[in-house]
Amino acid sequence: MAYLAPIHKPSSIRHAVKLNLLDPDESCLVVAKANKIEIWAFSGQGLELCFSDSFYGRVSMLAKIRPIGSTTDHLFIGTLRFSYFTVAWNSELKKLETVNLFENLSDSHMRESQSRDGCLVDPTGQYVMLELFEGVINLIKVTKPRKGRGDDYLDKAEQIRLSELKVRASTFLFTETKQPKIALLYSEGKDGNVRLVTYQIVDDKGHYSSFNPKKDRENELDGLDFSCSHLIPVPKGDRGQKRYMVRNSAVPKALLGGIIVVSESNMTYLDDESNAVIKYNLEEPSIFVAWEKLDGLNYLLADEYARLFALTILVDGPEVVGMKIRKLGKTTKASLMVLLSEGLVFIASHEGDSQLVKVDLNSEHEAIVLIQTFPNIGPILDFAVMDIGGLEGENKLNDYSSGQVQLVTGSGANDCGSVRSVRSGVGLEDEGILENLQGVTGIFSLKSHQESRIMDILMISMPVETRVFEFSSEGSIEEAHYFKDFNLEETTLLAMNTINGQELQVTPSSVILAGEASKRLKSAEWRPPEGQQITAVSGNFENLLLALNGTILVSLDIRYELHEVATREISSGDQVACIFVPDQCLGIGVVGFWRSGSISILDLHNLNLIQSEGLQKNNDASIPRSVALVQVLPANISGPTLFVAMEDGIVLTFKVDPSTFRLSGKKSIALGTQQVQFFILPQKNGLSNIFATSEHPSLIYGSEGRIIYSAVTADNVISVCSFDNKVYADTIIVATEEEVKISRIDTQRRTHIRTLPMGVTVRRIAYSPKERVLGLGCIKRELVRNQETVSCSFVIAEDVLFGQVGREFLLDKSEEVIECVIQSELHTSHTNSLAERFIVGTSFLENNESNERGRILIFGIDQSRSPYLITSLNLKCACRRVAILNGHIVAALIKTVVIYSYHETTTNSAYLTKICAYRCSTCPIDLAINDNIIAVADLQKSLVLLEYQPAKKEGNPDTLVEIARHYHSYWATAVSHLEDSSYLESDQEGNLIILARNMEGVTLEDRRRLELTGEFHLGEMVNRMQKIQVKPTFNAVIIPRAFLATTEGSIYLLSTIAPSAQDLLIRLQSSIAANIKTLGNIEFNSYRSFLNMDREASEPYRFIDGELIERFLDQDENLQNEICKGLGPHVEDIRGLVEELKRLH
């Protein structure tokens, strides 16, 4: 049984509408992301999220409806499974409520519409038109609600047949009568002739038109451009542009109030009353994908190449005399646009980030100003799982929730293409900005006097001075120009309170111990010998360890007025790189050295060596730059842990014996490419967390008996310190390159996204943990003299910032596209060892004279980290997928699956030999390898399992034998092995199924048939799956098995459920679904049940919806008790179970 939970929810936006939903006087923006509705309101800085909710349905349409007598708009929602309803905002409960429900308008005998489902509301708001099927429209009249009821304002849908089948676009026209008029753009005949026709939908008596083309057509325009795609209705104009008709006019005039037909090469304006036509040819053709009205004469057009244009209607009074178009600039690739206010436009995108822009048609240079960006990682074309822990041969456990695993995705397309890092981490919530300061070198928090229980002093160290800020109990902040005996004219290396109630400051020239005369606390000062400066320092309540000029170590006793305990000169020409004196292990200090690249634990009483550990190996010149010895895990689980940050971004950890200080259990993790700096954050339970700053900061803490490295949402962090004030309790102070701010650490782990814009389609991505690089298969699309050109390249990127390293490898074959990229260690005969290689499969967009249809390319990585081609194999068909089986290369070609043996003779030469093949039913889409079994996902025929059987006798060929098959039609998109003999498969309809071999079947036919052991309707098409291996705990409820990435930008974690928890989770899911109603009152079982062209199930089978289960935590206590009735366990036990499930992702 499977448990499916979202790691990242859908971010692609295909539908959006502006309406007065929340308030009669203020408009808002509603967007749909798969099965989620979001409401955004405009503030002075941009759009802010007001409300978000998911429901049991994938949104296919949104529209605004204003019921008669209502002061606010209602939202009309349609789903892909033909559920339609309206919702209104409940201002008291602060949520959306379902108002109107429709019967299922689907018909199994009808063919779905050529374009996507459409919903149109006429300009007067009287009628709603739904386009769901080819040759059919559904008309719904908006009526006046009966007295006392507000939920019956929509009449029964009237289904009307059309003779126009292949409708490309449709719209309501602006009319001066009460009879709405629609325009249809359609193609007919074998030659695809494109025509425009108009109809009045009701007659004078209010009866629906029969839409008879011979007697009901109002207008008909033939011979339109084949590329016509959109219809733009034009308003009648204001008072100064009223229509007038001239009788007996020799030439009919085109007046405002008509319609614009948009094509790639021209714009056609039709006045539907006079039948006058005006054409405007474009100087530069383009493929337009979306439009939006700015005003009655100006319209925005967005094209396929992420460009924005302004279309202006030229008028002479009410007469249209022409049109012109102007390019405004580049934006994101639009799926639709919504005008929010004058010049303020929301650009929704499926292929890139959505944007809020300000458009100024009067500006010649900056016509588009970007105001806000809404991240979107969809569509996810491919992704790689990067385990950033265990760099020294440890097991890769793919533990996403701990933050030690990140997913790197190839997202978006063309100009909006990017590489995204998806990682679990903690967030920082800013409480306030203290000061806009630049050049901060360190920050320290102190208590101003001994009796104070809170921190009220903040010291900010600058390169040549120190600034002091005092916090009052009311929250006011004031800068102080002096503080006791401290030296504020130098940079501060360390400042802290002592156990005697004194304050300590260390600068490069002195150590100052300040006391209060009233408390009879003496002040003391220690200065280094002449010519020496303090370069590094660390201390606790007892001791202070200093480095002078990096060559001399000095130990001071703070308790005895800075008494000099011991001095030691560093031998062998080495220098001190970093120092740390722990609070838990008194009497010792840890020192890192530059030249030797080692760390030493010293006795602070005499500076004698206790333990030493060399860190450099394999000609690695990296040196320790920061150390910390703290108690991260409880003492009953582990002793203190030593953290060592190396110069190259690697963090080493050691277990420390608290009695002998012996180091053991060395581990490593990569937190960046630059040196990491540690800042200790003491916790109230006696443990410590560590804030690690680098180009990507992390929070290191203990949880559930292990050390967690979580990403932190902070950039350019220089220094951090804990802060516990009456007003700002349990906060931290964060100094960045630009400012100093007060922040609070969010205790709940969340998904964090980092983006590297590429400007190309990153179609395939593979990760090499040995080389610490990513292999990217990139497709670049350009317009050159109005001609579209496509080029392809293989790029190597480093694994932290994802920046390109080395030179890219351009595919020299014209029209060649990368289809797949994998990484593997292949055997090389010239070294008799394994070497890291990238394997690339390609296809050709067009046939060439040499009958080449694709290639298999083998790449190595040279010393400059550039890819170089070792060998290539020409194919007579495209190579869709490649995989590795026992050192052989498995290739999924157009009709066959072929296994090649790889022979590398030198570093620059190799060859492939075909050893066996299998002919598929149609076309193999994906491969999954488990031992010697190859799972082949077929385009139309679901899944087949092949067994690779090496020749038993010399001279006999190896063979691929079909051992099992799923005997159903299933348009597969991806496949992954889960466990034992079970496989997960996805299809184009958004379904997931789990298939398993019946190894104990009675007959051979039973054993050859793959049995269905689980099915579920996800509602999103899965592009890629990646199997993962997680070592489960003894009592684990679920075991993660695979990551799934979808076209809508969602990432899911699929897990298998322990047998002991299966029954409870099934009953819990049923109880939650019965007690929690979502928008549209759609049944959970009907939404999540399997559905394709051949079969529809009644409910999901052996699948648990993690998103539904986790809704349990959002309910009030009474509803939780109601849900738990009859389940057996107490509500507290159920709550703990759900919280445990949620923590896993």
TrEMBL record:
- The residues covered by the RSE1/DDB1/CPSF1 first beta-propeller domain are 12-375
Domain RSE1/DDB1/CPSF1 second beta-propeller stretches: 436-745
Alphabetical keyword list: Nucleus
In terms of InterPro entries, this protein maps to: Beta-prop_RSE1/DDB1/CPSF1_1st, Beta-prop_RSE1/DDB1/CPSF1_2nd, Quino_amine_DH_bsu, RSE1/DDB1/CFT1, RSE1/DDB1/CPSF1_C, WD40/YVTN_repeat-like_dom_sf
Q: Where in the cell is it found?
A: Nucleus
Source domain of life? Eukaryota
- Cellular component per GO, a single term: nucleus
Q: Which GO terms describe its molecular function?
A: nucleic acid binding
What Pfam families does this protein map onto? Beta-prop_RSE1_1st (PF10433), Beta-prop_RSE1_2nd (PF23726), CPSF_A (PF03178)
Annotated RSE1/DDB1/CPSF1 C-terminal domain residues: 796-1114
Q: SUPFAM superfamilies in the record, alphabetically?
A: YVTN repeat-like/Quinoprotein amine dehydrogenase
Output this protein's name.
Putative dna damage-binding protein 1
Q: Which lineage do the record's taxonomy fields give for this organism?
A: Eukaryota, Fungi, Dikarya, Ascomycota, Pezizomycotina
